[in-house]
Amino acid sequence: MRKLLSYLKPYRGRIALATLLMAISAGCDLLLPTLMSDVLDKGVYGAAEADTFGYILKTAAWMLGISLVSLASVCGGYWVVYRVIAGYTQSLRSALFRKVHSMTLEEVGKIGTSNLVTRSTHDVSTFTDVIAMLCGSILIIPLMFLGGVFLCMRKDVFLSLVILCAVPLLIGAGMLMSKKIERLWEVSDEYCDRQNDLVRERLRGIRVIRAFNREQQAHEKITDATRTMADNIIRANVRMEIIDPAAAFVLNGAALLVVFLGGLRMERGSGLTAGDVFAVIQYIGIILGAIVSVSYDIVMLPHVRVAVRRLSQITESTGLEDDRPARGLTFSGAVDLDHVSFTYPGGSLPALSDVDLHIRPGEWVSVIGGTGSGKTTLAELLLAFRAPTEGTIRFDGLDAAALSPKDIRNNVSCSLQKSMLYAGTVAENLRMGKPDASDAELWDALEKAQVADFIREQPEGLDFRLEPAGTNVSGGQKQRIAIARALLKDAPLYIFDDSFSALDFLTEAKVRRAMNESLAGKTRIVITQRVVSAMHSDRIFVLADGVLVGAGTHAELLESCSIYREIYLSQTGGAVA
Question: Which of 193, 323, 490, 522 could cross-link with 115 by S-S, CB 3.0 to 4.6 Å?
């Protein structure tokens, strides 16, 4: 909570100004019942010889002026408040966005992508709405309550005692309504996450869903999640809104009691006037209005607590930002994995188990295995996205656990399994690999990746705009642009994680030939399921169910590794010589 509120610090001056304006408005509102009481006592029921009509006009003019000051103050106060909230919301969402991008993959996986989206939108809106309420009422509610009580008692102490009955009733109603409401908000937010997750899943897999005629089942899942979410939101809001009719009942009951008791006291000659009774009724309304605001805040508190807990999971995450400063290291390309094991959080079996491999500087190695064998997990470990559960990873003999992730990634260029392109031009996407690259360097990288001809066909050339995730190019073109981006970066270590899966064999051969020429002397780790992508490597490592089952050249593995031989035969259909 404290960390979330820390983003309000730059707006303290504006909050003070808004509070002052609101206080002026509250002061004006407290003056009006007294003036109205004077209109009744000195104007309407004044002495016959007095200029009662003139007094009424004069007091009415004062009331109009005070009302205009109150209106201007409250409008100015809320204008400042919502300017503050707009800036605060932007700051908070920017901070959450940066934090999410610094989180480890374990932390992202634990919370979930869909949950991160709803927390950065829905939960931030919930929290900032309450902050807006507090900015406008943190001083006003006590001022209205205390000022109303004081002025009410000035009119008549006995009638003011009605407040002692009404206030506990309203506060009790607020506390009663807030009971068990927190769980309703928790469930509704959980199913909001679930609904978002199902919609994203449906959009991503819409072709598969239609191909297998599973649209009805997908629709039913979303419907069930929406119905559960809506049911809990409705129940929570019904409980919250009960405070309004409860407040109206208490307020009208208090007014009725004041009129009855006031009439009795006037009959007994207590000196109480009709104007005093009218003023007391209005002051009680002001006081109870302040209490209603407090009661509403009490009812809102469970929802805020849920939002704060969910947001705090992001802000308090460990993240990749740590106290290991980048030292500007330059590696030679040597990589050693000493008995490395890794198990995903909540997983029963390790994704990698006791992997021991050593890569020399400038060596071209391939890691081959079937789906789920741990290849991509190995790439994530080498990129410091994850830390091994057991064992040690070393770069040039330096323990990766003691290095800054920035130092590691500055020495690695990669093209990952999912070729991620971003909205923008081809040149902008490529320069993510090398920000100061010239156009000639961009074309050279595109030539090596065998995608230059496609870019030349576009009228815009390097300024050809890619849609988000590269939806306006084919899968093979996406992979080749991603490969070009990786080749553009000058690094001692290159990782290609299943980067050729969408390429035909002829195009892949051309890309590999260009890579061999341009990356000579650099360490290359090619992660693949294709034998043809691995067979010409200096060495091949074979993974099966997270275990390293073979290491050697293509010829050696055909003789010594049955799993590699099976992969070779299944993909080539040939006999082993």
Answer: 193
The residue with tokens 């809990």 is 232
Other beta carbons within 10 angstroms of residue 108's beta carbon come to 16
DSSP SS3 for 74: helix
Alpha carbons 526 and 416: distance in angstroms, whole number: 10
Cα torsion 86, 87, 88, 92: sign: positive
Residue 577 has pLDDT above 50, yes or no: no
Nearest to 282 by CA among 18, 53, 38, 22: 38
Q: Residue 394 pLDDT more than 90?
A: yes
> b/e per residue, 272-290, with b = 16+ CB within 10 A?
bbebbbbbbbbbbbbbbbb
Based on the number of CB atoms within 10 Å of its own CB, is 491 exposed (0-12), middle (13-18) or buried (19 or more)? buried
Q: What is the pLDDT of residues 26-44, one digit of tens each?
A: 888 888 887 877 777 676 6
**Distance in angstroms (rounded) separating the CA atoms of residues 565 and 570:** 9
> What is the separation, in whole angstroms, between the first and last Cα of the chain?
69
Q: Which residues of 565-577 are buried (b: 16+ CB within 10 A; e: fewer)?
A: bebbeeeeeeeee
| Residue 296: pLDDT over 80 | no
Distances in Å between the Cα of 313 and the Cα atoms of 21, 97, 107, 131, 319 are: 36, 13, 9, 19, 11
Which ranges of 179-273 would DSSP assign to H, the alpha helix?
A: 181-204, 206-211, 215-241, 243-267
Residue 193's Cα: distance from chain center in Å? 11
- Residue for token pair 């390097």: 462
338: pLDDT strictly greater than 90: yes
CB proximity list for 16: less than 8 A, separation 6 or greater: none
Q: Look at residue 390 and give its three-state secondary structure.
A: strand
Residue 496 has pLDDT above 80, yes or no: yes
Dump the DSSP string for 352-381: EEEEEEEE-TT-EEEEE--TTSSHHHHHHH
- Asked if the model's pLDDT at residue 265 lies above 90, the reply is no
The angle at the Cα of 261, spanning 255 to 267, to the nearest 5 degrees, equals 135
Residue 362 region by backbone torsions, left for phi larger than 0, else alpha for psi between -120 and 50, else beta = left
Contacts for 502-507 with beta carbons within 8 Å, 24 or more apart?
A: 502/474, 502/475, 502/476, 502/478, 503/476, 503/479, 504/476, 505/532, 507/450, 507/476, 507/480
pLDDT band, very low/low/confident/very high, at 484 (cuts 50, 70, 90):
very high
Neighbouring C-beta atoms of residue 64, cutoff 10 Å = 10
Residue 4 · residue 92 · CB < 8 Å: yes
Residues 51, 52, 54: CA angle, nearest 5 degrees: 70
Which range (138-152, 446-460, 529-543) has the least confidence? 138-152
CA distances from 75 to 64, 143, 145, 532 (A): 16, 18, 21, 72
Please name each of the domains of the chain with its CATH number: 2-315 (1.20.1560.10), 333-345+352-411+494-503+527-572 (3.40.50.300), 417-490 (3.40.50.300)
Sheet of 398-399, strands arranged across: 352-359, 335-342, 390-395, 398-399
